[in-house]
Amino acid sequence: MEPIRCGWCSASDLYKKYHDEEWGIPVYDDPSLFEFLILETFQAGLSWITILNKRENFRIAFDHFDYKKIAHYPEEKIEELLQDTGIIRNKLKIRSAVTNAQAFMKVQEEFGSFSDYIWKFTNGKPINNNPKTLKDVPATTPLSDEISKDLKKRGFKFVGSTVIYAHMQATGMVNDHVEDCWTRKNS
């Protein structure tokens, strides 16, 4: 029998796997946090399944999300990415990946790690929202507004409150698994 999951992930096996193995599980390592940040910025205005379907292509195209490499991408690499049909070929989003890699490293310099910086907003612990249904899950919160504003101040791009809340969900800063979801019952 299929376990009960959050309703948003029932469309495909890839979605279910992501839901079961990644979404809402706390992430504290900088490389993974950066990967999710880049993927979330590319998702802006699109569905998450679109990004998941292209995730492996993104990994290859963006040097496995090596922010040290991405921060120094030359114009030729940006042009190459703009021709890559395996990813989202949005010039502003591609350029923002470079900008965000640079800003990411500045945050690391200031705070010791990006993880220390981002998790300080929740005192290092996930926020457990306990939504009963998907209708109870917000798209933004005052905290995602605050983090978004701070990231923008630090030079990050495509980090609006909705993108940041999705990042918080993906990296387990918030637990928005609905009440009946098997992952909530097993956490």
Automatic annotation (TrEMBL):
KW NADP (keyword) present? no
**Pfam families linked:** Adenine_glyco
* One GO-annotated biological process of the protein: base-excision repair
Give the EC number(s) listed in the UniProt record.
3.2.2.20
Keyword line: DNA damage, DNA repair, Hydrolase, Metal-binding, Zinc
Q: Which residues are Zn(2+)-binding?
A: C6, H19, H177, C181
Q: Which GO terms describe its molecular function?
A: DNA-3-methyladenine glycosylase activity; metal ion binding
InterPro entries reported in the protein's UniProt record: Adenine_glyco (IPR005019), DNA-3mA_glycosylase (IPR052891), DNA_glycosylase (IPR011257), Tag (IPR004597)
Query: Which reaction(s) are listed as its catalytic activity?
Result: Hydrolysis of alkylated DNA, releasing 3-methyladenine
Q: Which PANTHER family match?
A: DNA-3-METHYLADENINE GLYCOSYLASE 1 (PTHR30037), DNA-3-METHYLADENINE GLYCOSYLASE I (PTHR30037:SF4)
Tell me the function of this protein: Hydrolysis of the deoxyribose N-glycosidic bond to excise 3-methyladenine from the damaged DNA polymer formed by alkylation lesions.
Q: What is this protein called?
A: DNA-3-methyladenine glycosylase I
